Amino acid sequence: MIARTPTPPYYAVIFTSLRTEVEEGYKDTATLMVELAQAQPGYLGVEPARDGVGITVSYWESLEAIRNWKQQADHLIAQQLGREKWYEQYKTRICLVERDYGFDKE
Amino acid sequence: MIARTPTPPYYAVIFTSLRTEVEEGYKDTATLMVELAQAQPGYLGVEPARDGVGITVSYWESLEAIRNWKQQADHLIAQQLGREKWYEQYKTRICLVERDYGFDKE
User: Of A58, A99, B4, B20, whose CB is crowded by the most CB atoms within 10 A?
Assistant: First the structure.
């Protein structure tokens, strides 16, 4: 699904990653993290995709909402496990969405 | 590959899409568009991923570079064909990358 975000400005976190071959715990944790993110104040939406490289974009009302999510207790544990087990490499980019436009066939 | 981008600030264009079932011409055009984007002034990198939803993030030095790419002649044709044939729905978000950080196991 394309996330239904409000009129800009709002924030995006682009998380790009390369996985290791370790599958143990990955999917369950990824699913749980999306559920927890959705429950955070200021959460606006998420878009995940992977083929080789993985890209997860999450959308937020403010930098404060992003900071709070980064420090959320279960998320901190998942970040630690991610570095130890699941990710070969990743990059996180914090972005201000200044403008958007779209197209819908219907 | 994770794009090797410079120290922020720079710009990101998040293009999120849902495809139709029309395959004709799609892959060739997508490949050509990446090649053309790479040749544009101010291009910094691209990260594509698709499963169900497609996310392509391209990185740029400035808003001017993004505007020039949007107006590039072959790209204009591809945008038109995209709306007619390949995309059910899409959203383009123009973002200022304010901060980034990463992790590399090696």
Answer: A58
pLDDT tens-digit profile of A65-102? 999 999 999 999 999 999 999 999 999 999 999 999 99
Distance CA A67, CA B47 (A): 25
User: What residue spans of B1-106 are helical by DSSP H?
Assistant: 26-38, 63-70, 73-81
Selected residues 74-103 of chain A with any CB under 8 Å from a CB in chain B: 83, 87-103
Least CB–CB distance from B50: residue in A5, A51, A57: A51
B57, B47 Cβ separation under 8 angstroms: yes
Looking up residue B85, the CATH number of its domain turns out to be 3.30.70.100
Which among B4, B103, B106 is the top mutation candidate for probing chain A, defined by the most A β-carbons within 10 Å of its own β-carbon? Answer: B103
Q: What is the ipTM of this complex?
A: 0.94
* Full domain range(s) for residue A38: 10-97
Q: How many domains in chain A?
A: 1
Q: Is residue A104 part of a domain?
A: no
Of A86, A103, A106, which to mutate for an interface test with B (greatest number of B Cβ within 10 Å)? A103
- pLDDT digits 0-9 by tens, B40-88: 999 999 999 988 899 999 999 999 999 999 999 999 999 999 999 999 9
Residues forming a β-bridge with A43? A60
Residue B51 has a pLDDT of 82
The dihedral over CA atoms of B10, B15, B16, B21, expressed in degrees to the nearest 10, equals -160
Helix, strand or coil, per DSSP, at residue B72 = coil
